Amino acid sequence: MSDLMRQMTEQTTSRIERIAAMAAEGGLDTAIAMIAGSITDNGILQAFGTGHSQAFAMEIAGRAGGLIPTARIALSDVVVLGGQHRSVLAEAAALEREPTIVDDLWALTDPDPADVFLIASNSGVNGSIVGFALKAKENGHGVIAVTSLEHTARVTPKHPSGLRLSEIADVVIDNLAPYGDATLTLGGVEGGDGGGGDGGIGLGAVSSMTAAFIAQLLTIGAAERLAASGSTPPVYLSANIPGGDEHNHGLEDRYGDRLRRHA
């Protein structure tokens, strides 16, 4: 293992440990209560992220060991579910910055009043993310945000409101990613401009890993709270073990077509 690889391990584990310490001090309790309360009230968890923050939504929705009442929202829904031409997805980076996509995406979501929204964005400033969070709040839903507080403070919001995701959400969870996400610098590379500083190339992004850990802590905490209240947490088994499909489909049927999955 190279020195940079060892540094990456340290950068990742140190952040995981800080998030765990925050959780131990009750820093996730409000979010966990919102999630458990939504499920108790027959709501579902609406998870949304763009770019690499889709990894957070995938960790929340539709995976083994995860909660059944979940839906994963994606910008591609406007094509897959909304019938728009696939050309709208040609420039994904531009689309995630575009606030006008929000109305179409929201119409496809059709949330129940009890639903809670979990929205992840490392920068927390793109138009689709901010606009969608505003739409959720305007419609009376709780919003939990996972974002980099260091990064979002240093960039300009791209939504006409001038707001950041962290300024809209009911609960804000810091993913502890640094500005630019990369934690390491590969020096001695001619023309390096990848955000590593000192002309080096930035490597070792951590936001997806810390966000996945946060998603698992929220899932575990909500399941524990539901169990403590006397109900059996609706949790997925792996579809690749005997009886997994039968178990999962039986629980999914309670929610009809409200659960959204992607191939």
Task: Walk me through this protein's architecture.
- The chain is of the alpha/beta class and 263 residues long.
- The chain has one domain: Glucose-6-phosphate isomerase like protein, domain 1 (Rossmann fold), CATH 3.40.50.
- 40% of the residues lie in helices and 13% in strands.
- It contains ten helices and seven strands.
- The protein has a five-stranded parallel sheet, with helices on both faces. A two-stranded antiparallel ribbon has the order 6-7.
- Strand 4 (142-147), helix 8 (149-152) and strand 5 form a beta-alpha-beta unit.
- Helix 1 (3-24) packs parallel to helix 9 (207-228) and helix 2 crosses helix 9 (207-228).
- The longest helix is centred in the N-terminal third of the chain and has 22 residues, at 3-24.
- It is globular and about 55 Å long.
Mean pLDDT, to the nearest integer, reads: 93
Secondary structure tally, helices: 10
Q: Sketch the major β-sheet.
A: 5 strands, parallel
Assembly state here?
A: single chain
CATH architecture: 3-Layer(aba) Sandwich
User: How many domain regions?
Assistant: 1
Low-confidence stretches: none
Helix and strand sequence: HHEHEHHHEHEHEEEHH
Strand content: 5-15%
**Shape category:** globular
Q: How much is the radius of gyration in Å?
A: 19 Å
Q: Could you please say which CATH topology applies here?
A: Rossmann fold
Which superfamily, in CATH terms, is the homologous superfamily?
Answer: Glucose-6-phosphate isomerase like protein, domain 1
- For the record, what CATH class applies? Alpha Beta
**Helical proportion?**
25-40%
Widest beta sheet: strand line-up: 2-1-3-4-5
Strand count = 7
Distance between the termini: 35 Å
